[in-house]
Amino acid sequence: MVSSRTTRSSSDWQQLDQRHYLHPFSDFKALGQQGSQIISRAEGIYIYDNEGRQILDGMSGLWCCSLGYGQQSIAAAVYAQLQELPYYNSFFQCAHPPVIELSQRLAEVAPKHMNNVFFTSSGSEANDTCLRLLRRYWDLAGKPSKRLVISRRNAYHGSTIAGASLGGMGFMHQQFETLSYVHHVDQPYWFDEGGDMEPEAFGLQAARSLELKIDELGAENVAAFIAEPIQGAGGVIVPPASYWPEIERICRAHDILLITDEVICGFGRTGEWFGADYFSVSADLMPFAKAVTNGYQPLGGVLVSDRCADVLKTDGGEFAHGYTYSGHPAACAAALATLDILQEQNIVTTVRDSSGPYLQRRWAELAEHPLVGETRGAGFLAALELVSDKASRARFDGDGSSGARCRDNSMAAGLVMRAVGDTMIVAPPLVATHAQIDELIDKARAALDATAAELI
Ligand SMILES: *Cc1c(COP(=O)(O)O)cnc(C)c1O
C-alpha cells in the first residue's frame, strides 16, 4: 500500500490532484493548468520534491515545523500514545494524563498570570473559542453589554467564519458574510502606510486608531482587542517600539481585554516563548497552535489569564463549548514531546541570544540589494520589501507580480520564500545552524538577482 503510494510519477500525481483535490487558498483553475508541486519527503530543514530535489524550507511548513522535520521523539511519542489510549474525550467530567500534563507544562512556559488552557485542533478554532470565552467572561463579570471585538486591517486570525471575520483581509471578506460585531482599525505597517512620518510617531498613531474606535463604539460595548504581536501572513510586520505599550495602555484604560494571537509568534519564534513576552505586554487571552506540536499533529488552544479563569470558574453553570478533539491524546503527546525538545535543547534562548541575532544580521545585508527597500525582522521571522525606487519606496507594478516572480526564482534557487504582495518573508526552522542560515541568505540573494535581471 505505502509503496504504491510513493511510486507514482509526478505527472500522475498532478493529474489525480487536479481531478479530485480542492486545495486550500488556491485558484483552482490556475492550479489545474500549472500542476501542483509534489513534496514527498522531508528531513532536517529541507523538503524534497517527487524528483528528489532538495529545497530549504524557509517557511517551516506553514510556520509550524519550528524544529524541522525528522524529529523521531515526537513521532515515537504519538505512536506510543496511539497504542496506549488513542482517543478519549474530556467532556462529561473525564480527562486523561496527556491533556492534564500538557495543561500544566503550558502554564509553566506561559506568562505567570496565565495558568489555564482550553484546547482546540487549530488556530482558527482557538480564535472561535476566544469569542466564546469573551462573551461568557463579560456576562459572568456583570458587564453583558461588552460584546464588540476590535481587530486590525490586514490581520490574519484563521479561516473559519470567526477567524476570517476577526482577520482583516479584504479578499477573504468578499467571499462570505462577516460577523457584524467585529470592527477593524489601523495596522502598524510603517513601510506601506507611514508616509513621511517617523516610525515611532506612526506607531503611536496606529495604536490610537484603537482608542478612536473605542470612543466611537463606547467602551461599555467593547469586549476585546485582538492582534498578532507581529503580523505573520500580513507580511511579517514588526510594529514600531511605540506601538505595543500604547495598545496596552488603551486596553487597560477602557477595561477592554487584550488578546495576543500567538499562533505564529508562540513557542520561541521571536526568541521568547510568546510574542507578548517579546513586547513585554500582558495579555488576557493567548490563542496558540502551529508550532506547539512542531506541526506533527493538529493542535491549538487558548491560554487564559487568572483574571478570566477565576470568573469562568465561579458558579455560572456550564460553559457550552468544546470540540470532539479538544485535547486529543495523540496531539497532546506530540506537544509534550515538542516542549521537551524546546526546553532540553534550550532552543528559545539560542534563538534569542545566538541564531536569531545571526539571522537578523545576515538578513539585514540584503538591504543593500538594488531591489530591496527595507529589511526587518525579529528572532526567526524576517521580511524584505521589493521596490523600484528605494528613496520613495515605490513598487514596480504594485499588484504583487514582483513578489510572485521573486518567490518563483527563490524556489528555483532551492529556497521556500513566501510572497505577500511585494513583500518577501521567511520563518525558517529555529534549529537552523549558522551555516544553514548562510545558505538561506545566499539563495535569497540569488532569487533577488534573478528577479532584478527580469525587472530592471
Ligand atoms: C495560521 C494562523 C491562524 C489559523 O490557524 P489554523 O491552524 O490555520 O486554523 C490564526 N492566527 C494566526 C496568527 C495564524 O498565523
From TrEMBL:
It comes from Candidatus Litorirhabdus singularis. The keyword Transferase applies. InterPro entries: Aminotrans_3, Aminotrans_3_PPA_site, PyrdxlP-dep_Trfase, PyrdxlP-dep_Trfase_major, PyrdxlP-dep_Trfase_small. Signal peptide: none annotated. Its cofactor is pyridoxal 5'-phosphate. GO terms for molecular function: transaminase activity. It comes from the Bacteria. PANTHER family: AMINOTRANSFERASE, AMINOTRANSFERASE CLASS-III. This is Aspartate aminotransferase family protein. Pfam families: Aminotran_3 (PF00202). Keywords: Aminotransferase, Pyridoxal phosphate, Transferase.
